[in-house]
Write a structure and sequence with these properties.
The chain has 322 residues and is α+β, with helices and mostly antiparallel strands. 43% of the residues lie in helices and 17% in strands. It has a 6-stranded antiparallel beta sheet. A 3-stranded antiparallel beta sheet has the order 6-5-8.
Length: 322
């Protein structure tokens, strides 16, 4: 399968039983941990029922989580929420690839929430998991955090649960973080918090899985089980964004991934992600990314020169300006 054909596929649901044991994926028993290199068949636009906590060991590149496009580098730690589509794409792989790109932890959606009902000391870990519906990136991780990550990797059973709980507690207190979603509840530093609404979550999953289709507000309302006017008010109140803006942002995020991974024409990608004409695509892309699709591809492909690409990769990435 060529890169474009692979990239054209919608987000794949990844069940625990479908993960390839030959690639080092272990049965979780509630908490699973594995190492994967790059390139790997595990690198794809996908989602699953568990939380994912990932430590990048080698390479730099782009991360795609829901409607967010960001950067990662060695030492990046990312937390992705259940059923949110995501992918990490390395842009500086050596010709031979790398055997250890990431250490990945999967743990059951309700694991910490149920444990916190019995042990109040775990409330910090739960507050981290509830911080944003898409996920969180932790910036400038120190050696202690990295060591705690490795401890989860190198333990099992009750010891692994304790190590994960300690890691989540430390991350819940980590001062440097940013949420992946531009349409999310305010983070822990904000005095205002809006409860996640399952109707909004159903609409967001509808968009994540069918962004390339014509998704009208009426269809979204049917998915949520409420009228279009009620959905409009609810979606804006919960996410801070209109339904249409959210749909556009997901399409643009997916376009960014295709621009960086394939040589398909910009006009083809425009229709592939759900826009009905190229001028509309260019206008929204420029509004959200402050550059045209072609400029974005040039930046990602290194056509500005290797030295310039290295400089871009090392620069801090401002939210919303990737």
């Amino acid at each position: 399968m060529d890169d474009l054909t692979q990239a054209r596929r919608d987000a794949l649901f990844e069940s625990e039983l479908a993960r390839n044991v030959e690639l080092g994926v272990e049965p979780s028993g509630g908490i699973g941990c594995y190492v994967h290199g790059a390139p790997s068949s595990l690198e794809r636009w996908h989602y699953h029922d568990e939380y994912e906590l990932q430590l990048v060991v080698q390479t730099s590149g782009r991360i795609y989580v829901g409607n967010h496009v960001g950067a990662f580098r060695p030492g990046s730690i990312v937390l992705v929420s259940p059923r949110v589509p995501h992918n990490l794409v390395s842009l500086d792989l050596p010709a031979t690839g790398v055997s250890e790109r990431s250490v990945v932890i999967h743990f059951a959606k309700d694991l910490m929430h149920k444990a916190a009902e019995l042990l109040a000391d775990l409330r910090g870990a739960v507050s981290l998991l509830d911080r944003d519906r898409c996920g969180v990136e932790f910036l400038n991780a120190d050696q202690d955090l990295l060591d705690r990550f490795r401890l989860v990797q190198n333990t099992s059973g009750v010891a692994r649960f304790c190590a994960l709980a300690e890691l989540l507690q430390c991350l819940s207190r980590w001062p440097e973080f940013r949420s992946f979603s531009s349409t999310s509840v305010p983070d822990a530093r904000s005095p205002r918090k809006v409860a996640v609404d399952p109707r909004v979550e159903r609409v967001q999953e509808l968009v994540y899985r069918n962004y390339a289709d014509r998704l009208s507000l009426a269809q979204a309302g049917d998915c949520a089980g409420i009228g279009v006017h009620a959905l409009s008010r609810l979606f804006r109140r919960v996410t801070g964004s209109t339904y249409t803006d959210f749909l556009i942002s997901v399409r643009v995020a997916r376009a960014c991934e295709l621009l960086s991974k394939s040589d398909a024409q910009v006009s083809s990608i425009c229709y592939l992600v759900g826009f009905n004409n190229i001028s509309n695509f260019n206008r929204h892309f420029r509004r959200l990314k402050s550059m045209t699709p072609s400029e974005y591809r040039n930046r990602m492909s290194g056509r500005f020169g290797a030295a310039r690409v290295r400089q871009l990769r090392l620069q801090p990435i401002r939210a919303g300006s990737e």
